[in-house]
Amino acid sequence: MQRDNPYPQQQGKNDDLNVLVGRSLGQFRIVERIGAGGMATVFKAYQPNLDRYVAIKVLPAYHARDPIFVKRFVQEARAVAKLVHPNILQIHDFGEQDNITYIVMEYVEGGTLKERLKRSLAVPEAVDYMIQAAEGLNCAHNNGIVHRDVKPANMLLRKDGYLLLSDFGIAKILEGTTNLTRVGTGIGTPQYMSPEQGTGQAVDRRSDIYSLGIVLFHCLAGRVPFTADNPLTITVKHLNDPLPIEMLRMAGVPTPIEQVVVKMAAKAPQDRYQTTDELIGALTGALTASHLSMPLRWRPGMSSAIPQLDAQGSSGVSRPTPVSVSGQDLVSGQSVPSQQLPYNSQQPVVTLPCFRCGASNPSTRLFCTSCGDELSDKRAIHDRFLGPNNRPVLARLSIQNGPMGGRSFRFHQVVTTIGRTNGNDLIIQGRTVSRRHARLYFDNGRWYLEDLQSANGTLVNNVRVYQPVVLNDGDVINFGDEIVVFNTTY
Q1: pLDDT, mean of residues 150-177
Q2: What is the average per-residue pLDDT within 70-80?
Q3: What is the pLDDT of residues 254-297, one digit of tens each?
Q4: Cys staple from 301: which of 2, 374, 382, 468, with CB 3.0 to 4.6 Å?
Q5: Who's near 460: CB < 8 A, 6+ residues apart?
């Protein structure tokens, strides 16, 4: 029996790329080809220094020889690589070797939502996946990126229950380097494409919301709403035909959820949800109104953000429990106030501050709208040392320059790694910041900073440090050329 894999299967001939198996691209050793499409051939590769497998997309030669395409590809890859979020497939690296242009991504073994849809989905499971997808889109939209090709094949499912969006911006790259812009022939997938994208008009975040609505329809009804023998006819149906909601009713979809789908898939952008934040609130509210609860297979940190219903279908009181995903990137581990957060249709949604960036978020959210961090955190259980006001002694790092200038971040009494690449707790962008640059930690009532043999050094008050040093309130730290101010906070 052929094994499933989370990447599109081969379309066309890429036999010339088979010679890459067994060879290396940079530090990555190609293990096997696992899929391909019009955009790229995908390989599984091994990265020895981190002892992990990655997925590598190799551009076909006709794209790699197009300087306009390669330039746009690199620009888009850099933009997407900055999207650090649990529901976005992580880009680790990209490069060129022997006239081969490639991009290195997280390797996912759980398959795609497209494959999962070969079996029926329960309504709560479908809504769970759509909330996760909306969380990932929200992070992208807040960074000025529209996906343009939201579909089940671009939603990877990890075995721990996370849904990860992939292939951000690919349609945008292709549209800018081809002449396929006529009605019904635009780059994208017609079955899930918004009316405005199908007719070559400008698109924004509401186009992604439309596409996600069609994906949700597919999850609930078992098929897409509009089909035809050619892409043009499908596009015309998206433009003119009403959504066949009778298919949802035949599938037993509760009315509140049906109403959310209808609004997501409205023909005119102004009639849809205007933001994914608004959409997430509507989906969680529709679950409550339908007397349904989320699947029990909760991912770390999520159980406090979505209303859980008892056997009678009423919403109980949720007390946020500190949970964390220790060791992840900037998107991991935030603390939530310990007061009870009642959630039901009779009470207003309360506001929670994000621990990491302090932005206010409605209690129906899973992740912060500003930085993408989870709104719960078990790192707080390590805050055992209390200050004179009987509150935990925390650290604050305020970045003074560069693209993150003006932002500040607080840290619990645990080890925090600081560096330029994914895998650190605090990612500071800048060419002079090393991949793993420094370590911040708390011991016996004092905060310490340790340089991790960085290339450009760590300085405290203009003095380079070679051993762990005690930090004092107001110390100025240089990670290479990036300037950060340390403060103690409570």
Answers
A1: 76
A2: 75
A3: 999 999 999 999 999 999 999 998 998 899 889 889 988 766 54
A4: 374
A5: 449, 469, 471, 475, 476, 477, 478
Where would I find the H helices in 222-254?
Answer: 231-240, 245-250
DSSP letter at 435 equals S
Indicate the SS3 state at residue 463. Answer: strand
Smallest CA-to-CA distance from 479 within 430, 417, 408 is with 430
Condensed to tens digits (0 to 9), the pLDDT of residues 421-440 reads 777 888 888 889 998 899 99
At residue 109 the predicted structure's pLDDT band, cuts being 50, 70 and 90, is confident
In angstroms and rounded to an integer, the radius of gyration of the C-alpha atoms of the chain is 24
Evaluate whether 84 touches 357 at the Cβ level (below 8 Å).
no
Which token pair is 187?
């780059």
Sign of the Cα pseudo-torsion (340, 368, 276, 147, in order): negative
* Measured distance CA(130)–CA(150) in Å, rounded: 11
What does the block give as tokens for 163?
């849904």
Considering 93, 128, 149, 167, which one is annotated as catalytic? 149
**Cβ-based burial of 405 (10 A; exposed 0-12, middle 13-18, buried ≥19):** exposed
The answer to whether residue 377 is catalytic is no
Going by C-alpha positions, the residue among 321, 319, 315, 312 that lies closest to residue 285 is 315
Which residue shows structure tokens 């198996």?
A: 21
Q: Are 449 and 472 in contact (CB under 8 A)?
A: no
Backbone angles phi, psi at 30, to 5 degrees: -70, 125
Q: What's residue 303's pLDDT?
A: 33
Burial 199-226 (b: 16+ CB within 10 A, else e): bbeebebbbbbbbbbbbbbbbbbeebbb
Integer Cα distance of 370 and 477 in angstroms: 25
Cα separation of 397 and 408, whole Å? 5
Specify the pairing of strand 100-106 against strand 91-97: antiparallel
- pLDDT tens sequence across 213-263: 999 999 999 999 999 999 999 999 999 999 999 999 999 999 999 999 999
- Could you tell me whether strands 351-353 and 341-342 are parallel, antiparallel, or unpaired per DSSP bridges? unpaired
Query: Tokens in use for 335?
Result: 């603390």
The strand pair at 41-47 and 28-36 is best described as antiparallel
State the DSSP code for 268.
S
pLDDT surpassing 60 at residue 316: no
CB-based burial label for 121 (10 Å; 0-12, 13-18, 19+): middle
Span 370-418, pLDDT tens digits: 666 667 666 777 788 888 877 789 999 999 988 778 888 889 888 899 9
Neighbouring C-beta atoms of residue 56, cutoff 10 Å: 28
Residue 88 has pLDDT above 50, yes or no: yes
Q: What is the C-alpha separation between 148 and 79, in angstroms, rounded?
A: 15
Q: What is the pTM assigned to this prediction?
A: 0.61
Query: Is pLDDT at 311 greater than 50 in this prediction?
Result: no
